[in-house]
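#lab-general

N.A. 3:47 PM
ok so I finally got the sequence cleaned up, no stray characters, all 291 residues accounted for. can someone with queue access submit it? mine expired

B.Y. 3:52 PM
send it over

N.A. 3:53 PM
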Amino acid sequence: MVKASKIAEFLDKKLQGPDIEVERPCSIKNLQPKCITFAKKFSDDILEYLVRNDQCLALVTKEYEGKINCAHIVSDNPRLDFAKTVSHFFQANREAGIAKTAILGENVQIGEGVIIGEYCVIGNNVSIGNGTIIRNHVVIYDNTVIGDDCLIRSNTVIGEEGFGFERDEDQIPIRLPHLGRVVIGNNVEIGALNTIARGTLDDTYIGDNVKTDDHVHIAHNVHVGKNTIITACSEISGSTCIGANSWLAPNCSIMNGISLGENVFVGLGAVVTKSVESNSVVFGNPAMKLR
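B.Y. 4:20 PM
back already:
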């Protein structure tokens, strides 16, 4: 339980209305006494919810000011401030430790405050930074580097060989050895059931603050720039370079060897077959530049 004024102080914003005690977060359509909620845009329906339920704390845009009596904090980005508040005050923290069922290889370096869940398998010479959480049934292969404050969700596989073959004179596919690593930066979140292949010779690299949804595949030698978001079922083919601050929508596919610049938005189900310059929006199959 936390006072509304404490939340306002944390957000460096002004509390308007009563200084209530807040017990839990809730949605705008399921308001309860002593809860915190948010409204990221103005609507008459949301206004009516807040007028009827005056025992909550609401993070709202400026349009609500003077129209509601409940405790409220005006924000330029209520959803962002809600996320910060819930993470800071209302998210339960597990104690650091390694599950008894986890298997660790040789020369594994584990930072402070790390959590490794049930039935994880960690290979040799793996490095895991401070505060990183690895959930259940995760497999991390040899030589992988994971930074600080990362989250690896359940059933993900990081660092296996990529899919690389060359045919011989009899057209038999011969596997190309993969000798690189996977290197993951700080504050990265990797979704459930992801696969991230190690590099062939160079490393596969995931930059700081990258977030991937569930069922994402990242192939060998891929470079993902910082702050990029990759949503569910996206497929990133080998040796692709994705610039910082980009967004890849669900079910998109990126062809091997091409580059996406910074601040690129790839639309739902897009198939990107050519390199894309920075600050572009692409949609379709094959993907075409919208703007």
